[in-house]
Structures are given as C-alpha cells and as structure tokens.
Design brief:
With 545 residues, the chain is of the alpha/beta class. The protein folds into three domains: 5-167, Rossmann fold (3-Layer(aba) Sandwich); 174-354, Glycogen Phosphorylase B (Rossmann fold, 3-Layer(aba) Sandwich); 387-544, Rossmann fold (3-Layer(aba) Sandwich). Helix content is 39%, strand content 19%. It is built from 19 helices and 22 strands. The strands form four sheets. The protein has a seven-stranded parallel β-sheet with strand order 5-4-3-6-7-8-9. A seven-stranded mixed β-sheet has the order 18-19-17-16-20-21-22, with helices on both faces. Strand 11 (225-230), helix 8 and strand 12 form a beta-alpha-beta unit. The radius of gyration is 25 Å and the shape is globular.
Length: 545
C-alpha cells in the first residue's frame, strides 16, 4: 500500500497513512492464544493491503518460517512503519522499541499477577513483576494502547494510559473446524461423561481446583466420568508435581493428562466432552471458553478476572469455588437435557456478534486512527496528588482503618482514596471515582469474587499497577498485601498504617522504617490523620523536587 495523505478534519492537520504494519512479541508460540492472535492479525493486515511481518525474541520451531528476529526491527523500521507491540510477559524489548523509528501502539493481553507464582516458580514470578514494570516503561513510547478486555483496559488506565480502549479479540473460528482424531475419539467415547479442561498447567489456572471439582462430581453424581486435561503436565516443576500428588491423594478414577495435543486431537476432546470446566483465577480474555461455546460444549467457569466478560452472560459462571457446589452445576448440565440445550443456545447467541467479518471490521475501525497517524487527545496530567490505598474501605467503610483513610484524604486537597470494589464489575472500563460523603473514592475491579463470609478485601491487579505508577505520596492504610508487592517501587514517597493484628512483613518494615505507624484501639483517629496529612504533604513536595 502506498503512502496516502489523509485529511483529519477533527484536528485540522494532514496525516500520513503507513505502508507497513508489523507486530512485536517476546515469544511466538504455536497454539497459544497470543500466538494465534498475532498470526491472525498479520493475515488481516495483509488482507487490508499492508506489508506485515512478525518480529520476536524467541519462537517455537513450528513458527520459524513466520517470524523475524526482534533485533532486526530497528534496522527494518522507517518513518512510515507502524508497530503493534503485544505485551503479556517480560520481554526486555523496551530499549529496542525506544530506538526504532515509526509510530508504535500497545496491545495488552494482561500479565498474570506475581502472587500466583510466589513460592512456586521464582523465575516466572520475577518475570511477571518485570512485565508490569515494562508496562509502565512502554507508556512513553506508544501513541495508542488497546486491551483485549475491559478488565485489562482498567489496568492500562491505572498505569497511566489515558486513552486505552478495548480491541475485539479476533478469533479465527475456521481454525477450529478440524476433523476429530478418530483414535482418540473412539478411546474416550465409551459411555463416560467427559469433563474437559484446556490450557497451560500453571498456578493461576488452578488445575488443583479442577481436580477437586471433578472428584466431587465423580463421587457424588456420576461415577462413570472422566477428566480430560489438554495441557502439558510433568514432574519437572513444583506446581506440576503438586497437582500429580493431589490426584494421588484424592484418588479419582479416569483422570487423563493428554499433554500437548494437535488440532485433530483437540477436536476429539471437544467432540466427546459433556462439559468444559474452568476454575482459573486470572484470565485477560479466555479463548478456550469461546472455543467450547463454538463447538457446542456447555461451559462452567469460575468468575474471576475477565472470565465473566468473556462469557457474556452465557454458560454457567459461578462465584463459588466450593468443589461440591461447582460439581452440582456439572451434574445438572448432564441430567437436565432441556437446561443443557438452553445453555448451548445461549452460548451460540453469545458468539453471534463475534463473527469473522464483524470483528475484522471493528478491529480495522479501532486501528485506523493509529494507522493514519491521528494522535488521541491526551488529557493533561494533573498534579501529583496524594493517594491513600485502603483495599478494605468498600468492604468495611466504618472500620477504624477506613475512617482514618477517609480523614487523611479529606485533609489533603486533590487527594484520592483507592479501594477494591467488593463485587465483580467485569465491564468497568477504568477506575471510577465516586463520592462517599464528599470524599473522592476510586473503586478498582477485584481479580476474583469474594466469599460473603470473608472480611478481607479481594486482590486487584489494576490497583497494584496504579500504586506502582503513582508519582505523588502514597499511604498504605491497612493494605498489607498491596504494600508487600509494591512498596519497593514507591518506597521514596510511601507511608503505612497498620493495626497490630495485621502487622506488615519484615520487608515492608525495612522499606518504610519510621514512616510506618500503628493504629491502636485507643488511637485518636483525627489526630493521627492530621499528622499523616502533614507528613504526606511535606514528603510529596520533597519528592517532587
């Protein structure tokens, strides 16, 4: 496609359309959601007339003919190049992005929170933490940013991407139309009810919960049942070993770990499945859920992160992780033919707005301003206001810590109180301000639902990202876990308040030192709030200098 001069009536300036639109990804894998998306976008871009290549640091052998080394991109790029940067894990590509010519945009798939790998895989945990640092660093090098769900777009907004929006996930439905492997299908279609899970065996997918639910299902409802797990599992990692050990401990029959399967074997799994089960605690989108819907398999999924958004009201989304309760959902789907047919029909309706042509058109419309060089209107950044982080405020607004947090904010002009909304809000596009008796309170979406009996505030990856990116003074008000994960990044301008029964760990104590206060039962909340507001104000001005 030749460069075309386009008139942007909104801005009143001429812009130039690019002729080449390339993609950058840290690892191009065969068969995973990110890799499939990258390849499908390349085909869309070429179909629209652009020259388009994929650049990566690493790639699977099956992808070697589809990729170019990432190190070559700065040399290949020119002023009329555009680069779509896919981000989902540590890439170490920010310096490369910074020096490459042409315009750049971010496509955010979400990063799994570090907490899922703590104590399990130190290398991956460090990679997740580094990936969120890179997310902040990339902000200065891109003109546009999109996420593949509202859940992920909220985290972009928290990280300071002021014009982040949602890009439709372009699923290549034709790729699922592969005849089932006859040998595997004959093996598993033996009269058993087959429960299917597809995905990587990593802690965030909670395969151990899948095992517990299946065991309850087999013992309470359907003795003739089988669990099919399409995903590599071995004794090579602590998590894999723990899952295998749990299977031995629980003792269910007919649990089949299929390992990595090809397209025909995967088709056989779906063709024989009674239900698809997901107990994942973190999804930036959730392609296997839609794949199950496309293949006519009813879905039961735990409603964490972007799962409710992906489900779109179809299937059965549960807010409970109790194995017996979830097993009951699997049982009713098997026993009630009318309900099963209703669920499958609703899932089919869910896919209707995601057909190939509609999604391709929406992707093209979303990318057009970037491809034409139209910069979004950036809101002017405000002052580096103080942020009081009190995750439990929404859960217990009248608790002493919540009253202290509100009192500090009320004493500091421009300050805001950050908390985690107790209920799941899957379509919340960005952290939203509400007024609580005049106090500005920003609510962040929780990563997963919380039990009604729990008094603890749920975790929120977008809240933690917002704290890491905060430039003004930060007060951790009872935010023990948030501080543990973020205090090192904001140490120079952070304070903390804790109650004796919820004392912070040694690392936070070391980082904050004398700026760590204790809220005792007999503490004068107003007096402490006054002192903290004074310290935050002075500390913020010192930090700004």
């Amino acid at each position: 496609m030749a460069n075309v001069s386009l008139w942007n009536s909104k801005r009143g300036t001429a812009s130039r359309s690019v002729g080449r639109v390339h993609q950058l990804v840290s690892h191009l894998a065969w068969g995973d959601a990110v890799g499939n998306q990258v390849r499908y976008l390349r085909d869309l871009l070429r179909g629209w007339g652009f020259d388009s290549e994929i650049y990566a640091n690493e790639w699977d052998e099956a992808c070697r003919d589809q990729v170019r080394p990432a190190r070559d991109y700065p040399r290949d790029a020119s002023s009329d190049s555009a680069l779509l940067i896919h981000h989902s894990f540590e890439s170490r590509l920010v310096p490369l992005v910074a020096k490459a010519r042409g315009r750049k945009a971010l496509l955010y798939h979400n990063v799994t929170p570090t907490r899922f790998f703590e104590g399990v895989d130190r290398h991956v945990a460090q990679g997740c933490t580094a990936a969120r640092e890179e997310l902040r660093a990339l902000r200065d090098h891109v003109s546009h940013a999109w996420a593949y769900s509202h859940f992920s777009a909220e985290e972009l907004a928290a990280a300071g991407y002021r014009d982040a929006s949602v890009l439709p996930f372009a699923v290549d439905w034709n790729a699922f139309d592969v005849p089932p492997d006859p040998a595997l299908r004959a093996q598993v279609e033996d009269g058993c009810a087959n429960i299917l899970f597809v995905g990587r065996t990593v802690p965030s997918k909670r395969l151990e919960d899948v095992l517990r639910v299946f065991t309850a299902y087999q013992r309470l409802y359907q003795p003739r049942s089988r669990l099919l797990v399409a995903g590599t599992l071995s004794n090579s990692t602590p998590y894999d070993a723990s899952v295998i050990a749990l299977r031995e401990q629980l003792g269910p029959e007919r649990v089949v770990f299929l390992g990595r399967v090809d397209a025909s074997q995967l088709s056989a799994c779906f063709a024989s499945a009674t239900a698809y089960l997901s107990m994942s605690r973190h999804e930036g989108f959730g392609v296997p859920l839609l794949e199950a819907m496309y293949r006519g398999v009813p879905v039961v999924a735990y409603g964490a992160a972007a799962v409710p958004e992906t489900m779109g009201g179809a299937g059965l989304t549960t807010l409970s992780d109790d194995p017996v309760e979830v097993a009951g959902l699997l049982a009713v789907l098997e026993r009630d033919a009318a309900l099963r047919a209703q669920v499958v029909a609703a899932q089919r309706d869910r896919l209707a707005p995601l057909d190939q042509q509609t999604v391709a058109r929406r992707v093209h419309e979303a990318l057009t301003p970037f491809l034409e060089g139209r910069s979004p209107v950036q809101a002017k950044p405000g002052p580096d206001a103080a942020t009081v982080v009190c995750p439990g405020f929404d859960t217990a607004p009248d608790a002493p810590m919540s009253r202290l947090a509100r009192a500090v904010v009320d004493r500091m002009p421009g300050a805001r109180l950050w908390t985690v909304r107790r209920g799941v809000m899957p379509l919340q596009l960005a952290p939203r301000e509400e007024r609580r008796e005049g106090t500005p309170v920003w609510h962040f979406t929780p990563d997963e639902p919380t039990s009604p009996a729990s008094s603890d505030a749920p975790a929120s990856s977008s809240l933690e990202t917002g704290v890491r990116c905060a430039t003004g003074p930060v007060l951790f008000a009872g935010a023990e876990e948030v501080a543990r994960r973020t205090a090192a990044q904001v140490q120079a301008h952070a304070w903390g308040v804790w109650e004796a029964r919820r004392a912070p760990d040694a690392g936070v104590r070391r980082l904050l030192g004398p700026r760590l206060k204790e809220l005792k039962p007999d503490t004068d909340v107003d007096a402490l709030a006054r002192d903290l507001a004074r310290e935050l104000d002075a500390g913020g001005r010192t930090h700004a200098r």
